[in-house]
Amino acid sequence: MAGRPVFCLLAALLASAAPIEAQTLQPPASPELKLGEAGYYEAPAVNVLVFSNWYDGLFADSKISGVEIIQQGKRIATNGDVRLSSTPGQWDAIGRLVDRQVDAATGAITVTLEYPEHQWRYRIRSAKRGAAVAVSVILDQPVPAALAGKAGFNLEFLPSAYFHHSYMVDGRTGGFPLYPADAMIRTPERNAASGRAEGPGAEPTAMARGNRFVLAPEDPARRVSIQSNVEVQLFDGRNQAQNGWFVFRSLLPAGRTGTVVEWTIQPNSVPGWLRPPVIAHSQLGYTPDARKVATIELDRNDRRTLPARLLRIGEDGRMTPVETGSPKRWGDYLRYSYLQLDFSGVHQPGLYVLEYGDTRTAPFRIAADAYAGAWHPTMDVYFPVAMDHMFVNEGYRVWHGEAHRDDARQAPVSHEHIDLYAQGPTTDTRFKPGEHIPGLAVGGWFDAGDFDIRTQSQYQVIRSLVDSWERWRPTRDTTAIDWSRRRTEMHVPDGTPDLLQQIRHGTLQLVAQFDAVGHAIHGIVEPDVAQYTHLGDASTKTDGLIYDPSLKLGEERNGGSGTPDDRWAFTTKASALNYGSIAGLAAASRALAEVDPELSKKALAIATRTWAEEQSHAPDLYQYGNTTGGPLEAERFSAAVELLRATKDQRYVAAVQSAWPAIEKTFASNLRDAVAALPFMPASYRNGMIPAVRAYADATRTGAAANPFGVPITTGGWAGSGAVLGSALNAYALHKAFPDIMPADPVFRGIEFLLGHHPGSDISFVSGVGTVSKEVAYGNNRADFSFIAGGVVPGVLIIKPDFPENHEDWPFFWGENEYVIPEGAMWIELAHAAHELATQGAAAKAAPSKQ
């Protein structure tokens, strides 16, 4: 009985299918792009940046330059520039920025760049073309012969943004692969990005080619079209290296000048699109009496007035609203508008969530012990995993075997290396270039997401851990360390506080350097890019056998090997490194006095001897990159302070006093050392410090008003978690020494920033700490899209001029996501400091009045 009506309905639908389909093929015209006051092209939900950012020199390819696209709140494309490879990597050559001109009247941006080694300049010009941007490569001189067939205009798209998406090219269809699987072609030379140290080179073949591409036609948030006057090829850079991107590329024609390539790039603008609100707050929660402020981050076009609520969670799951008052407008910062909801008046312990409209946070606590265990993952997991020269085991999992048993070979002279290492004109040791330096295969931590031992990081961490020990004496013991067997077992107590064991491990490396060559060295790092890019088990980077040049490649005999995979030690003398190491060794001597008195005495003996030696001659001023120590005056001051704390010797009182006038000028950078000396200095020293303390406190108050989060937010190529940690610890040190001048508030603002109260998202930047924390990070396991609990990432990177970014879907942004050991140690300090201040505040409030 129902068959006939259904058939008729289907016929009617089929009859109307053609006009419906025709309408979907002719969408409304997209809004035109405009060149905004910030210097980039704008339309609803779309920004196109043209060299608003350029590589800061730390590494060649930071994925923050050239033509870039931000679409629906996500930066999906970058590196629109002339490059010399179809899948360029971190160490490939880049053009040097010469000039950038913005013509506000015409909406054109013209950028001049050059490859100086080839004496070749080129221009990239962008111009508005309705809803698109026309990008042209303009040559006043032809492509040099050496670059013919190599130079091409590239634009790279973020792979994770296009997983599970399709593309079309000249009407043909394709899909973006989840994992790279393209055919490779053999080449005479290896690409430096490949991670391969042996055998021939290989380059990926193009996935597709044509003159018109449409990316993700099915997804408005990812749809981008590229129309070119010359052929465009699509490559998957992940065939070359795990951190590669999807690269669209047009070769520059040889022998031609003028406009040689022109692309019309059209992102998909969505009128009325609004970025969802973000409720920035501490993922760990708050103590009952704490200041509690959530910052609501809004699209600037979001004019809605939505309810903001704090909800208390009951055992039965019921959400009960808690009175807080209404949020207040803070103002604009970067590209967003901000409201703030102050719920400081809520004291009752429990579980809570925050809501703004349809946006709801993950649950967080209000509890007296909110900060009590915040440092545990860092000490229990992150630092054990970072231990070099050890086998590190966690239950069923081996994090890495005994790494770098073959350390280390003397670096070649007059050599600029990777990762900001260099060797001067002499070795400054008794060893010849390439010769094995015995005794270095002990102690130390992997510096970051890679595996080098950076001495400057080692002594910074030692001093930070010693400060945590001396202030709070944490006796937590969850790690068994056996140095005789070179084995670390996580989650297994062994009777010694873990903090002291980590101090010992770092001290062993510093002592080994002085024993081996007589002074501090820059560090120990991989001999080539292929080893440097190694991911996974550090013990598989080298064969563990000392290199013997008399053996053939791959031959092994009597503990030697013909494979030159041993790491290099960079040994040029630098007084700044010596002073920094003196400070680390002197501090360690105090902490280790009971658990390892022999090492304690040796560390102090080296420190005092080296101090005296440094005073006997003009300083060695060799400097390169960030591996040769900090400013000399600052490093000398820290050495004097730590020696004073260790010995109480009046010679160091005089050294601290004489250094103070210079240190006062850079007080913000050195104040924790200056304050640490107070108990051992005369009253005049303290009195002389007060003007600097007042000035710093005033600057802190002024700086807190610059953004809604109340902390310093840096804008360099490395994001600013370290700066926030440093400023919070500065505030703690001054609050303890000068409580009438420096309040405790900046300490809590700092820890809340790390835990989620920051721009761009509400994620905790300490992996495993807080309800929602960093789970895709740049550790040595980054190719697994995973994390190391307790690691601290750099955090919010400001893509100039105004886009705060931290990717949780792509771990390879080292400037946003790379763990480094100094930040781990500072996090341990800050978590203790916040717990102490919160506990003391609660105790003071609970104490009966004396009146």
Give a description of the structure.
- The chain has 851 residues and is α+β, with helices and mostly antiparallel strands.
- Helices cover 27% and strands 24% of the residues.
- The chain is built from 17 helices and 43 strands.
- The strands form nine sheets. It has a 16-stranded antiparallel β-sheet that branches. Strands 20, 22, 23, 26, 27 and 28 form a six-stranded mixed β-sheet that branches.
- α8 (575-591) packs antiparallel against α9 (597-615).
- The chain is globular.
- The model is unreliable at 1-26 (pLDDT under 50).
Instruction: Report the sheet with the most strands, covering strand number, pairing sense and barrel closure.
Output: 16 strands, antiparallel
Number of strands: 43
Share of helix, binned: 25-40%
Helical stretch count?
Answer: 17
Q: Beta-sheet strand percentage? A: 15-25%
User: Oligomerization state of this entry?
Assistant: single chain
The 3D shape can be described as globular
**Rg computed from alpha carbons, rounded to a whole number of angstroms:** 29 Å
Terminal CA distance? 92 Å
Low-confidence stretches: 1-26
Task: Provide keyphrases for this structure.
851 residues; alpha+beta; 16-stranded antiparallel β-sheet; six-stranded mixed β-sheet; 17 helices; 43 strands; globular; disordered N terminus
